[in-house]
Amino acid sequence: MAHLQKNNAKLVARVRRLRGQMEAVERALEGGAPCGEVLHLVASVRGAVNGLTLELMEDHIRFHVVDPDGEAPSAEGAAELIAALRTYMK
What we know:
- By secondary structure, this protein is mainly α.
- The protein has a single domain, classed as Metal-sensitive repressor, helix protomer (Methane Monooxygenase Hydroxylase, Chain G, domain 1, Up-down Bundle), CATH 1.20.58.1000.
- It contains four helices and no strands.
- It is elongated, with a radius of gyration of 17 Å.
- GO terms for molecular function: DNA binding; metal ion binding.
- Belongs to the FrmR/RcnR family.
- Keywords: Coiled coil.
């Protein structure tokens, strides 16, 4: 997946932030944090995972489903699908 290589540092940074968020959930649970606090932490993790998933899906659509140059007629349909996914994943 050569296209991921140019975004590799950005993707790895997102994964590292996710790891930090999960560690915060673990610390909250071990420390007996209130339920509301733990739920907020988990919601943050969910949002971060959705963001990473969306970025990977968008790259996949752009580089494996439609013409990478974006000149094929299906490029418009791909853009619409990506916009719908962005709305759904929020």
